[in-house]
Amino acid sequence: MWPAQGVFVFAVMSAIPPFIALARRNFLAFAGSSLISIVALLLAGYTYFVPISIILLIVSFVVAVQKFGPGERRMAVFVRAAILMILAAAVAQAVRISIIYNWSPPKIFKQALSSPLTVDDRERAMTEALNSQFPKGSDEAALKSMLLKQGFEDVSRPQPSCRSSRSTKSTRVYESCPKETREMRYDYRHLISFPCGTIHLSVNWSVDPDGKTTRIEATDNTICL
């Protein structure tokens, strides 16, 4: 996923072509460049679509400086055909990604994330949801099975720092994670997620030699502007 800062810069850039067309009082170019810029901006938030978004932005600039007068109908037809082909390709790719991408949080966290909360509140609510279903001493295999079924993926290198038991509601204290720490991650997006990018939820836990959990924690690693 492209960083949210990159999406913001792209949003500023995509607003330039329509203003150029408007300043030239070319309303057909304004309509065309505006449509292309909007599609480019919507796709820019997804890593898969960044190349397409850049191409669309270039086309938007080209359209913005075109003159669609009576004597240039061939050029107008060519540009329109190019726009339609690019938009069709973008829509096809968008449909493909919408099918394979996660658009909602995992079932176990839906209630915990159902209302607007701060990052600390979200993490606390998710951790409580995990511990209510898998209290200390639960079988790790059951935990992993549930996470896999809900779309979580294994993380090859678990995060090195975990929240300390000395943390409070107002202060977060971190310490090195226990040696036998595992982690799985779930990424998803809202249909309208600006100014945030992909939402990264992680579950990390530790086990004893018998494969029983000694701690479970949920974290939210989402980056927002």
Overall description:
The structure is a single chain. The radius of gyration is 24 Å and the shape is elongated. It folds into two domains: 97 residues, no CATH class; 114 residues, no CATH class. Helix 1 packs antiparallel against helix 3, helix 2 runs antiparallel to helix 3 and helix 3 packs parallel to helix 5. The protein is built from seven helices and six strands, in the order αααααααββββββ. Strand 5 and strand 6 form a beta hairpin. The protein has 225 residues and is α+β, with helices and mostly antiparallel strands. The mean pLDDT is 78.
* Total beta strand runs: 6
Describe the strand arrangement of the main beta sheet, using strand numbers: 1-4-5-6
Question: Mean pLDDT, rounded to whole units?
Answer: 78
Strand content: 5-15%
- How much helical structure, as a percent, in the residues? 40-55%
Secondary-structure element order, N to C: HHHHHHHEEEEEE
Which structural class do you get from the secondary structure elements?
alpha+beta
Distance between the termini: 14 Å
Main attributes?
47% helix; alpha+beta; four-stranded antiparallel β-sheet; elongated
SSE diagram, text form:
Layout: H1 4-14, H2 16-23, H3 27-44, H4 50-64, H5 73-100, H6 119-133, H7 140-149, E1 153-154, E2 161-163, E3 174-176, E4 181-188, E5 199-207, E6 213-220
